Amino acid sequence: MVADFDSEFGHYRVEDEIYNGRPARILYGGNKLVAQSGMARDTDDELLFDYNQRFREIVQGMRPQRVLVLGGGVLTLPTALLREFPEMLIDVVERDELLITLAEKYFGYTPNARMTIYIGDGVQYLEDTTTIYDLIIMDVFDHAAIPPAFQTPVFVRAMRRHVGKRGVVAINCIASQRGLNAATLHKLYGLVQPVFPIGQIFSAARNPSEWMSENYLVVGQDGSWDLPAFLLRSPVKLSRS
After folding, report:
1. Which residues contact 180 (CB under 8 A, 6 or more apart)?
2. Which residues contact 128 (CB under 8 A, 6 or more apart)?
3. What domains lie within the chain, and their CATH numbers?
4. What confidence tens digit (pLDDT) does each residue in 2-23 have?
5. Model pTM score
């Protein structure tokens, strides 16, 4: 264990360990110590967590100029994107200021003029901002669940208003395609479909399983982008069973 912290939003632990076969630094959170974020400590270019790598692949395909990340955590994804894309501007909304401190102390984040961090609530941020983004990435969790306020038609419409004509919204969701843990994935897809001309679901896992809880990306766009080509995978077709 590297460090142990508490904030008003929960308990965090930073550990150095082998994660999915790679030396890594991991941020665990909550009473069950769920892995919330992490960075690899090897020379492999691929990001440690599958869902972050899928977000990165969307960025690599789109080359957006302005990105909003809702739920910045310890900033592993935004920091990686800033290194890779020197012209990109990134706004990050994170409710827990302690995570930004941990990002700088333990996860390689250095303040950068191209990244603006807002401490607060993502729902409120979208109500207040007038900025239009090329890409909105939503990675907001309370432990392993997306808070209810981020699973409403009003919020999905707010995201739609804040992406340009060719903009994309990509939501990280932990769920299964089938069974008891499928409800959130079906709900998010049902919220995105009426708001965007095209709604799609992509598995983030290397070896997806229909019945196991895994990371999925629920994506909305106007059809400008060939996301299966960026992600090298076909969209998931949900079944009601």
Report:
1. none
2. none
3. 47-231 (3.40.50.150)
4. 999 999 998 999 999 999 999 9
5. 0.96
